[in-house]
Each structure stands twice: as C-alpha cells, then as structure tokens.
Amino acid sequence: MLSIPVPVRSAAGAARAVVAALLDAFVASLAPLAARVAAGPRHVAVIGPDGLVLHTLHKGRLGPPLPLADGARAPEAFRTGDLQLRLPPELFLTRSLRLPDSGRGYLQPIIAHRLERLTPWRADKVLYGYGVVEGVSEDGTIGVDLLATSVDLAAPFLARLEDAGLSATALGSAAEPLDAPLRFDLYRGRSQAADGRLRARTARVLAILLAGLAGTCLVSFLLAASASADLQETERRLATLRTRLALRGGPGSSRASALIEGKRPDTATIVLIDRLSTALPDDTVLRELDIDPARIRLVGRSADAPGLIARLETGAGLKNLRFAAPVIRDADRRDAFDLVATRGGAPEAAR
Predict the structure, then answer these.
(1) What is each CA distance from 110 to 20, 106, 265, 336, in whole angstroms?
(2) Is pLDDT at 128 greater than 60 in this prediction?
(3) Which residues contact 281 (CB under 8 A, 6 or more apart)?
C-alpha cells in the first residue's frame, strides 16, 4: 500500500521539472528581446594582469579606460545597464565540431549532452557558448565553434567584479574586440529579480495558452475518436467486399483483391512512410527511399546502422531486412548504409 504514492510523487516531480525546464528555455529565448526593449547604458569590464579596467560603450565606440584599484568601488554610472566581463583568453578552451545540418535547431541540447567529452570539467561546472560557421559541407554537416571555461576558473573574477559593486550580464573572452558584440556569451548574467519577473509574466501567459490548448485537445480527441469509429466501419465494409470478391472467383478477382489489399491501412504506402518516420531515430537521415509493392530500399546515414534492423522490423513491420552493401563508417562516426527489405503484409498479387 505504501508503494503507490512513491511513483505518483516521482511522476509529479518529473512533470514539474519538465515544465520548469521548458519555461526556463522559453524565458531564455525572450530575454534578448526584453533586453533590447529595456536597453540602458552598456559597459565593458576587463580583468587582466593590471587589474580591473572599465570602459563605456556608446554607439559601438569604446570609451577611455578607467582603471579601478583593488577594493575601490566602481562609479555609479557603471552600476546600471549591461556589463560585459572579458576574461583572459588563456582561461578558455576552444573546440571545433561537425554536426548534421538537420540538427541545427537542436544544437544547444546536442552540445550540452557532449560537454563532459569535449571539456575536462563536469557538465554542471561548464560555462560555454557556441557559434555556427556559415555554409553546409557536401556531407550535410555544419561547423560549430565552441568556447568554454569552468565555473571555478571564472569565480575569482566574478568575485572581483562584485567587490567593485558590479554584476556582469555577459561573459566572454578578452581576445574578441571589446567594441564588438560577443560571439561567444558564456554567461547570461541577468539579475534574479529581472529574470523572476520575466519568468512570472511568461508563466501567466503560458497558463492562459495552456487552458485554451486543453480545450483544443479535448475537441481533437473527440474528432479522433469519431475518425477511429469511421475507420473501423470502413474496415468492416472492406472485409465484406473482399469476402464477396473471393466468392465470385473468376478472371480478374485476384487483381481486384490485390487492389483492395493495397488500399488497406496496414499495406498502404502512405501508412508505411508514416511508420518509417516513427521507427527511424533522430540521428538517421535518408537520402534514397524506393518503395515497390513488395520491396523497399533505404539508403542513408545513421549513428548506428546495425541497430536499424530491429527498429524497422518492430516499428515499420518490414521483413527480411539485409544490407545490400557493406556498412561504411565515416570520419564523423556515422554509418553509410544501403538496406533492402520485404514489406510486411504486401499483396500476394504484387509479389
């Protein structure tokens, strides 16, 4: 009896974590727009061998340097608006990656998943930024430049800035031009109060949208139920028609039966394509897809080509899967494959 509440609480906690993560991602996407709307003065702080030096940015031009002695507080003019903190270049680690162009919209989670392999630090201790290199190569990949450092390396510099009464809204390398926008911003640096207000407003708007979405989902569910009932009725009528054709016999009956079989949901080509899109993993890209009444051929690239056989057998209903050519692994550790298979439930007349 005590085991029942545990998974309920775990599921509720997981659901809250997912909602919070989605809300944070959405707020992060809105933050640059909010920052532009409420833009104030812009400043640059550089911490080097000679200590803390402050600059003011005005219309893309860098003002004269203002050295700040240890323990001294920054002037009031530097405590409002955006402040970029530029750290020495030797604190940063750079990497160049090649990623599929099809994953361009998911670069952040892809890179976050690889942080512990790309850097010597734990993923929760990494501050990083990335930029996409223009152009797509012939193999369908794009270049991504990564700049990273650790929280521990940046902490003393952030503490020095706080001692001066300042708070950074962006973190980058002093190797980039001080008067140009940061290509790699490793630290969003928004104050908790501003972030909280934006998050609260966004949560209220999303709550209203979700209420409307719930009504839409209910209507969609009712329509889907009605469509399912219509499909069952259509299946019943087709079964009756197939029975009548089989009883009639004679020339052409096999051809008619084959045509009817080819339109059934479990043998229709459009249904097969839908099953293929569901069965194939996100790391697989098809370059060729040939579909015959009894045979199918798939050519493409995947992170795990041998693993596709089991997925296609169970998810797409294909049979007798085999590789028509040797699997070749390229420099990006992706397999080039050429698979042929028999369609499950293919009409006998078409075979």
Answers:
(1) 20, 6, 36, 21
(2) yes
(3) 302, 303, 304, 308, 311
